[in-house]
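Data deposition worksheet. Section B asks for the primary sequence of the deposited chain exactly as it was used as input, without tags or linkers unless they were present during the calculation. Section C holds the resulting structure in token form. Section D is free text for depositor observations; keep each observation to a single sentence. Incomplete worksheets are returned to the depositor.
Section A, Depositor: J.P.
Section B:
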Amino acid sequence: MPKVLWNYLLALPTFFSGVLLLSPIANADEIQTTPELTQQKSILVENVAPNLAPKIAQINPTVETQISQTDDIGGQVTSVSQLSDVKPTDWAFQALQSLVERYGVIAGYADSTFKGNRAMTRYEFAAGLNAALERLNELIASSTADLVKREDLDTLKKLQEEFAAELTTLRGRVDLLEARTAKIEASQFSTTTKLQGEAIFLIADTFGDRANNTSANDTQDDTQTFSGYRVNLNLQTSFTGKDQLTTGLQASTIPNLAATTGTHMTRFTVEGTGSADGSLGLARLYYRFPLTKQATVWVGAKALQPVVFTPTLNPLVGGASGAVSRFSTFNHTVYRPGFEGAGAAFAYKFSPQLQLSAGYIADNNLASSPESGKGVFGGNNLTIAQLTFSPSRQLDVGLSYARKYFGNATGFNLTGGTGSTFARNPFEQRATASDNFGLEFNWKTSPKFHVAGWFGYTLAHQLSGGDNDATIVHGALTLGIPDLFKKGNLGGFVVGVPPKVTSNNYRSRPGAAPREDKDTSLHIEAFYTFKLNDNISVTPNFYVITSPEHNSNNSPIWVGALRSTFRF
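Section C:
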């Protein structure tokens, strides 16, 4: 017997326990929805989804519709027990178990299910058959030992003949895709770098009297309806396929509303990080690479913020398609240093349920100076660590700690540009250190409803010109509703208390009142993001600040905004 045929015979037995399940339906134009036949389909669709299916989808919209159900494929499983909807009593359990444990060709879905009761088309069957044949060739090359019957080999031959036309069509489409890919690669500006762009158009206005932080009669709302933009151009460069160098350019004209409303509680999250005059400049520069399978390292020269390497656990409301206000983004006392960062960080994944993130960030405006009181360790800095615990697929919890230091008269704020004036610098511009504790969570109560939130607690200590202490607290609850009214859209609500000084024994002068917030402001916000297509979305957004600056003498301030986002 020829050696090739003998190797086929050695490799086939268990493989056919899965493949032969499909033979009774080889002559059908399309699989009917029965428990047995849909289980047969699913075995092969799981094989092809990570490989051929995405390629086919890119070159034929009809096939893309047929295989779109595989978009939520998760990782490859190593034991059939990982599939929550597969039971030992299922008719195909042993065949599936062999395919998983002996051949490693089954990928579970993101929710740990197998979904064996869905119908398939002839193209899906053909693609799965092709994947099985490719896997078989790999096994032959390694001379896998076992014996197979001649009739099994005949069955395989019949399957190949029955689906010869579909296999030829699929292979032709893959060849066409590869030709197109080669053409694109030949014309791209770099083989290592991809450009990701985002343009935001914003039109907004505020309503309500100005917060009275200056003269007694300075309360008139002078804000006019205005428009602005922010453009981000990110160059993502990879040298090994696993690392990434991010070089970000930004131009922005979106203003800081504190100048006209009298309070930082009204600020936008889409403000520019650099100049507000529309000029293009470097906004971020950092590099990420894997140290081990579990550990990832970041080093950065500009804008290496905690949100780059630490899960903020507010992915919907605080995401790119989420709310417009700065306060609604995340826990600012932990995740926003109050300066542009340069430094290093790492994340270590102990298991899928537990991850540690940590980093040290220095104010890059001061880190580049060798003068006393500046530099990497002498200037403003932040040390942060967070344990992220995921007891289930539906719940994530973060325990955070951040140590901040600000030198004398360095224009600092402890609360990342949110909260009251007293909270941002409780001891005015005197050197300050703060210990910031955070509790964050994200609870996916269902695929259509996510609840997230945080609580922040800060202990601040005056380091020069006195020995005083202050306590700052804040918190928020966010509700995200994905696919609201239409798939791809997003609705959301936010309610919270911006950073507030609850106690402080510092006085700006003898006999003056302590810098404490006697009242409590509420931030209430709602938004809805229309996804017009994969590249364009529109978000109407509205929020109100009650008792701005935690001062009940101030009237509520309302902010309305319309954001249009273009991604390319």
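Section D:
The CA atoms of residues 142 and 210 lie 76 Å apart.
The first strand starts at residue 73 and ends at 76.
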